[in-house]
UniProtKB/TrEMBL annotation:
It comes from Prosthecobacter vanneervenii. One of its GO terms (biological process) is aromatic amino acid family biosynthetic process. The lineage of its organism: Bacteria, Pseudomonadati, Verrucomicrobiota, Verrucomicrobiia, Verrucomicrobiales. Residues 190-329 form the 3-dehydroquinate synthase C-terminal domain. Pfam families: DHQ_synthase, DHQS_C. Its main location: cytoplasm. This is 3-dehydroquinate synthase. It is found in: Cytoplasm. The gene is aroB. Binds 1 divalent metal cation per subunit. Can use either Co(2+) or Zn(2+). Residues 76-188 form the 3-dehydroquinate synthase N-terminal domain. The keyword ATP-binding does not apply.
Length: 366
């Protein structure tokens, strides 16, 4: 007999009228329809938005579960990869939603990684001025980060996430069994956001990450721990107005520029963020209090997770700076840059200048 599946306590994201639960566990897709029904009993028609890798693996189970719960789902599939997180693909998805007859009482299910969560969430946020959506994240990255917090949106050619809305999901179902089909590279990239969470909030998580990288440790509890960190930060500053949520952007100012400059899809989001994390940690050791030992510890952990720490040679510093200037953290020509005082203690600094960013890029070439 296989060991019984241990139930994992869901994470509650407390946002007043926009509160929701994040279910974490195994074998959750089969009961997805029932769970959705608890949250959206009066809504029937829905679109399951997925991508060309995830759809063939999991869409049938999700559709069957929704049908068994009395829902009427249609399936919308976009090509896998970051290029689908675009205005033109959002137009295509919205068009399919119209053709499927979805109305203001319909809802969306985002079945896939962060690309699908951001794209489908964005479509839900603007369709007939907003309908509910459920996140069903199927990558490490989307389970620990993107499915929680309600940032939705698409990229412009040179600017990541430049068009979007805050639109919280009504429910999140993180089924860890879906991670069994995740290729190694996509598994590893999720650890960039986990290392980010450890750097900004929880130094003790370094040990748990090392254990997982060594093939030991409990991935379910690591994922739940990260969802809980993200939930607490989002609860404190849902719309990123007071600065707490901005800490989740640690490593993202240069990371986003690198991701866009490389061409969407060449580096996965987590891989670009790994480079951004190294750059931001290095700057923390230059202009803040991070010790060089702790900087080296962060770089070592990125390497242990098989994440890149060297900038591809063909990425030009001036081009990266041009793209970085479009980042949402540039305001009135000033950069709001996240630095570490020590591992587990981050803050938003206004002391980082463009020259510092160029130096950090030089460092990434070593
Ligand atoms: N909204 C947020 O708060 C937030 C946070 C972090 C990242 N993001 C965004 O998330 C995106 C990155 O997400 P991602 O890394 O999950 O990328 P992704 O959605 O492109 O998924 C990565 C690859 O894995 C495949 N895949 C997904 N699940 C699979 C599974 N279970 N089995 C096999 N293959 C599977 C996908 O088809 C894709 O090819 C970026 O666009 C990033 O900007 C958003
Ligand atoms: O949820 C957040 O807030 C984050 O910053 C999480 C990031 O990992 C994520 O990549 C996010 O999409 C970046 O947001 P942006 O506002 O800088 O585009
Ligand atoms: Zn990110």
């Amino acid at each position: 007999m296989p060991p019984p599946v241990q139930p994992v306590r869901p994470v509650f994201v407390n946002l007043g009228p926009r509160s929701y639960l994040v279910q974490v566990g195994r074998d959750l897709l089969k009961t997805l329809g029932e769970e959705v029904n608890k949250k959206l009993p009066d809504r029937t028609s829905c679109a399951v938005v997925t991508d060309s890798n995830v759809g063939p693996l999991y869409a049938e189970t999700v559709l069957a579960s929704l049908r068994a719960a009395g829902k009427k789902p249609c399936l919308i599939t976009v090509p896998a990869g970051e290029s689908s997180k675009s205005l033109s693909w959002s137009q295509s998805v919205l068009g399919e939603m119209v053709r499927a007859g979805l109305d203001r009482k319909s809802f969306v299910v985002a079945l896939g990684g962060g690309v699908i969560g951001d794209l489908a969430g964005f479509c839900a946020s603007v369709y007939q001025r907003g309908i509910p959506y459920v996140q069903v994240p199927t990558t490490v990255l989307s389970q620990v980060d993107s499915s929680v917090g309600g940032k939705t949106g698409v990229n412009l050619p040179d600017a990541k996430n430049m068009v979007g809305c805050f639109h919280q999901p009504v429910h999140v179902i993180a089924d860890l069994d879906t991670l069994n089909s995740l290729p190694t590279r996509e598994w590893n990239e999720g650890f960039a956001e986990i290392i980010k969470h450890a750097c900004i909030r929880d130094a003790s998580m370094f040990k748990a990450i090392e254990d997982i990288a060594a093939g030991k440790g409990d991935i379910v509890s690591l994922i739940r721990r990260n969802i809980a960190i993200k939930a607490v930060i989002v609860e404190a500053d849902e719309h990123e107005t007071i600065g707490t949520r901005a800490l989740l952007n640690f490593g993202h100012t240069l990371g986003h520029a690198i991701e866009a400059a490389a061409g969407y899809g060449r580096l996965l989001h987590g891989e670009a963020i790994s480079l951004g994390l190294r750059a931001a940690a290095w700057l923390s050791a230059q202009v803040s209090d991070l010790t060089s030992d702790d900087y080296e510890r962060i770089v070592a952990l990125l390497k242990l997770c098989d994440l890149p720490t060297r900038l591809p040679d063909d990425l030009d510093t001036e081009e990266l700076m041009r793209i970085a200037r479009t980042d949402k953290k540039f305001e009135n020509g000033k950069i709001r840059f996240v630095l570490l005082r020590k591992i587990g203690d981050a803050y938003v600094s206004k002391d980082v200048m463009e020259g510092h960013l160029k130096q950090a890029l030089d460092e990434l070439r070593k």
